[in-house]
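INFO  loader      accepted 1 record
INFO  loader      residues=135
INFO  predictor   begin
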Amino acid sequence: MKKTTLSILATICMLLAFSFSGQAQKKISRTVKAKLVTTGQGVNPNIKSEAPENDVEETESRGGGSCNIRFANYTGYYVNIYVDGYYRGQLSPRGGGTVVVAEGYTTIYCITAGKTLEWTDAGTCKNVYTFKLYP
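INFO  predictor   done
INFO  writer      dumping tokens
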């Protein structure tokens, strides 16, 4: 009887432990509407670095804290992604993707390759964000 009671209690404890560990991050879906890029604005304050044009190996390790930012592109355009002003990749038309960044990011900025439409929003690593980009 004691063994049966102990095994039931152990099973219940394990089930509770696994059910709480899977709920650590809240999943948030954000719909972001495009706005037209104003021409003649000069240097874009949302962009600190453009896409790399040569092969330079990054020295930053992938260890430590990082998080994933998901994107869904509902437009017919190629879209460049910037996180905290730094280029992180490009989405295909009507495509999607995930960008891995260091913990503590604050802003996302997306702009079409032809620089006609742009999106901007904010997020954190405390939640799993999916940014849905609409024209």
